[in-house]
Design brief:
Helices cover 48% and strands 17% of the residues.
Length: 356
């Protein structure tokens, strides 16, 4: 069997790369001989990292030829179909699906999060692509509601994010060994749409947490972009903190979260990593997908970047959770247990579709 995978890959965003790794691992667990071709922005990196074939995601002729040779297309996961950033993602990803249908190959939408979609034309494009897909799996109820609201009538399965199926028991790294004592991990990102200086609130909370005997380690999820934001927050602080190497691997970043007592995160996959590692978490929301996931695993959201919470509010909540660490950890274990099992089953459904 030969499948093509389309998504936001080869941009060195740890969340999206973790999705890709999870999908590949899940597929290979069902079919050790499966041939996988990934549409990537960094071909050599993708080939080397995942031991797959990779082609330029912008080379339409090559994509057309690969899809002709394949047994089908996997589109996802992640938040591919949204127009919050621009109209380009919806146009690009639905065009890839269109090529697959043009060469009469099945399309499997794999654990995607959809939205927001504001433009009416984008809604029509998305509806048409979903109606022609052979199987649709989405990762949250809000995405399903949105897709149904734009007129999609096909059956849709609700499944966990692929990263929830990531097995982390055998990960090893000594990077975290240099962090002495108990620490919390922090994942921040820039968000130029924010109307408040939420990063300053995070800095105040981190100072309070350090003054109560814990260390703080910032974890850049999107390479140098998040490193610079982490550095910005650390420069606002009165106390010393650490910043995890931004070029470190997915496994090393998950281990950093696993060994921490608490994750305070903006990036969705920092929070998903925390659930996978059974680490309690507090989310800071800039997108409905953050709220959806925190609700799914019954974990705290301090509010959106523009809500009226303070650094004192955040540190107060964090310190209460740290004081009750064993109870908070047991909650995460219980809430994420079933999700970890179900996440691995999406690959089974995909292979069944491609075998038809």
């Amino acid at each position: 069997m030969r499948v093509v995978i389309s998504g936001y890959y080869g941009y060195h965003n740890v969340g999206d790369e973790a999705i890709l790794k999870s999908i590949i691992t899940a597929l290979r667990s069902q079919d050790a001989n499966i041939e996988i071709v990934v549409l990537s922005n960094d071909i050599e990196y993708t080939k080397k990292t995942y031991n797959v074939e990779a082609i330029n995601r912008w080379n339409i002729l090559q994509i057309y030829n690969e899809l002709r040779k394949s047994d089908g297309l996997i589109s996802g996961g992640g938040s591919l179909l949204q127009d919050a950033t621009s109209n380009r993602p919806i146009k690009y990803y639905t065009f890839i699906m269109k090529i697959s249908k043009l060469v009469k190959k099945p399309v499997f939408i794999y654990a995607q999060g959809v939205g927001p979609i504001s433009d009416n034309l984008n809604k029509k494009i998305t509806k048409k692509s979903f109606e022609k897909a052979d199987y649709i799996t989405l990762r949250d109820k809000e995405s399903i509601d949105l897709v149904k609201s734009i007129g999609v009538t096909k059956s849709i399965d609700l499944v966990p994010d692929p990263v929830m199926g990531f097995s982390i028991d055998r990960f090893e790294s000594n990077i975290c060994d240099k962090y002495e004592g108990d620490y919390i991990s922090i994942s921040v990102r820039d968000w130029d749409k924010a109307k408040t200086d939420f990063l300053k609130k995070v800095a105040k909370a981190c100072d309070d947490i350090i003054e109560n005997g814990y260390n703080v380690v910032f974890l850049p999820m999107h390479g140098r972009h998040d490193y610079e934001t982490s550095r910005k927050v650390s420069d606002m602080m009165n106390n010393d903190c650490d910043i995890f190497p931004h070029e470190s691997s997915i496994e090393e970043k998950i281990l950093c979260i696993k060994k921490s007592k608490l994750m305070i995160g903006m990036r969705l996959h920092a929070l998903i990593f925390a659930a996978s590692a059974n680490t309690p978490m507090i989310g800071i929301s800039y997108d409905p997908k953050i709220d959806s996931f925190l609700n799914l695993v019954n974990q705290l959201c301090i509010g959106s970047v523009d809500d009226n919470w303070s650094g004192d509010d955040l540190s107060h909540k964090a310190l209460i959770m740290l004081k009750n660490y064993e109870y908070e950890r047991s909650k995460v274990i219980e809430e994420s247990k079933e999700l970890k099992i179900v996440a691995k089953q999406t690959a089974i459904k995909a292979i069944e579709i491609f075998k038809k």
